[in-house]
Protein 1
Amino acid sequence: MTSPQTTKPELSPNPSAHPLAPAAGGGAAGWEGRLFGALVLSAFVLYGVGSAFADQAVGLTLVMLNSVAVTVLGLVGFRLLRPENTRIGLGYLAARIAEAILLAGGVVVASGPTGSEADTTGYLLGMVALGLGSVPFCLALGSARWLPSFMARWGVLGYTLLAIGALTELATGRAVTVLFAIPGGLFEVALGCHLVWRGFRRH
């Protein structure tokens, strides 16, 4: 008499499994995507209001909080892309850190006794850094299907124009960045709302 053979269940391979990879369709990707979206939306208020009242303690506090939010955006973006494209993830993190330092540093220097235009220069340099780091980031999100393709292309266009506008203003002194920033600003509002609603999900 032969004993019944026991068969081990086969595990289906999961090529996307990675200890640092957000789970597709939920899990870490869900809550981190919602955090990312909320921080993108909050940055408008934090820097916009904070820079307007930079000569007061509350204004400087809001600007500093914006820099913290911007840095966290870089960390979340790096974590999302690390399993698939570490270089672009690192580039995005570096761009966000540079943006955070330039925005906060410019406002702090401008609020000093010299009353210089450091806040404007810091803002423009920060937008250049943001644009250069976000174009490949949006391309990678679209390629990995973390965003709908039309939204990824919108982001590429918006951030490209933002960087061009900021560089043009730095070179010529003409206040053109606000016009070039409109497509990117609308993209960030749409992106923030989309991610707060759905988080990062494979499309």
Protein 2
Amino acid sequence: MTTTGSDAPTADRPAAAPYPVDEVGTHGPQEDVMRYTLLLHYPEMSPEELGPEGIEYGQRAFTAYAATLQAAGVLVAGEVLQPSVATTTVRTVDGVLQVQDGPFADTKEQLGGTFVIDVPDLDAALEWARRAPSTDWGPVEVRPGALHTVDGVWMPSA
């Protein structure tokens, strides 16, 4: 995450006020909804590269975003992932299990976190993705869910 230019908080301008909650992408308890996962990709930076101000900015921005999703009644789950150096990749090749330290792909941008939301349609999911703070740092992939578990039983996500 980077905080450059007008994005960076200052003593005169605190970062990341909560997003306004409006009717876009909200739903009542009886509405049909679709589950989408927002996959947040962005360049990884060390705490030293981010600096205390950058870390604080990101924490406030994501706290406000999660609170807004919760207030709108669309948040199912959210998770910030540890850095990709903590990744272990497991796969089977020719019947042999291979365990590799580190991520599968060696790319500049890594999967940094996810939000799972229940919204009426793709347009609503795209609107919530547009509001994700990390769109300033990298892409947000919006993927519809197919199945999810409830008490250990697979259920359709739509």
